[in-house]
Hints:
alpha/beta; Rossmann fold; about 30% helix
Amino acid sequence: MDRYAEGDTPWDIGRADGNLVRMAERGAILPCAVLEAGCGTGADAVWLAEQGFTVSGLDESAAAIRLARERAGRAGVTARFFVWDFLGDPPPVPPQDLVYDRGLFHSYSGHADRRAVARKAAACLGPDGKWLLVCGRKDAPGGAPGVCRCTALEVVAAAEPYFDTLLLEAAFFSTKDGGDSPAWLYLGKKRAS
Ligand SMILES: C[S@@+](CC[C@H](N)C(=O)[O-])C[C@H]1O[C@@H](n2cnc3c(N)ncnc32)[C@H](O)[C@@H]1O
């Protein structure tokens, strides 16, 4: 089922996530070639393009990508969008400086799948490329299990074969209603292979 076609997309806030904005304001990410994995309807991708990033976005949902292209058109920015399975063949982009993920990684509940997402992110990056991840935070061992919530250990265990951890911060997603939705903010630098 395509949740975009169904209109069931509570994560889609229609504006850039505050964590992404803060990372840019802190200078932790600078304009560069960025691939957004699981870009949804493109609010973050379009914001990045407005800040001078060279943006590619992919999502497995054709409905989401159609909306992302429309959003970029309305904003008057250039960004390339692909209907693409991030866990499948390499996307048709050159080596990137940054891969950004808000919500794709955490849609996978098992360690093997999450590690595969991290491996794919690394494969899309050039040397010294970075992976910026915002994913659901599971605060306490024994808390609600399953999809869209990770422990810090789960994030680092998936990332660490491919990335040196630069930052792991307890944060909150920007939400539609301003409510608290705990998140991890992770930034890793691709390891030399
Ligand atoms: C929680 S949503 C977040 C969307 C967007 N980043 C946002 O913040 O609004 C997760 C997104 O990942 C996409 N996704 C999940 N697995 C994917 C895959 N293997 N390849 C491409 N997109 C995927 C979903 O279609 C969905 O748009």
